[in-house]
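Okay, can you check this protein?
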Amino acid sequence: MERGKPGAADPALRAAAEKAIEEIEYYQGWTSFINTLFRGVSLGSILLLMALGLAIVFGLMGVINMAHGELMMIGAYSTFVMQSFFIAYLPESMFGLYFLLALPAAFVMSALVGYLMEITIIRHLYGRPLETLLTTWGISLVLQQAVRQVFGAQNVDVRAPSWLSGGYHLMVGVQFPFNRLFIVALAIMCVTGTYIFLFRTWAGMRIRAV
């Protein structure tokens, strides 16, 4: 259409609109990149915690622990049990506190099951990596079936407390959920604590000398 006729597009207006669209797409690209990067960091933090345990067990004991995921499962179900206890026996106003007790309980229960595995079975198989691999794989199957018998085959729901709901708004289109920020912070604390224990304490020096 020619300029001046009804419905004709003003070149300056068209250029301004195209520039605005480019700026919006550029901004959306950056927000998408930041959100994806943060999701990757938060998921990577979970994998880091898993890998940290596997690396220490294999490095110190020479054991390929195929039941490592099941130990994390024990911790998760410990959290579910603690949540169920708060719902059943304590006022609703105290529900937000369950997570503060569930977190150490998950570590303790997982450590207890791992300790029982070590003193009853694994310590008799040191130096035999194939046997430990097959044995821990069998233990993982036993733990899975035991959990199914107790809690059923359906997934259970663990609700985040109110203080982990919502998120931090960095900018328009970018929000960091508080639960994922908590995971990242927990991973940093665990890695830092492990480093301090292994490299700054007498017990850690003895462990590294093995």
The two ends are 83 Å apart (CA to CA). The chain is about 70% helix and 5% strand. Strands lie at 167-171, 174-177.
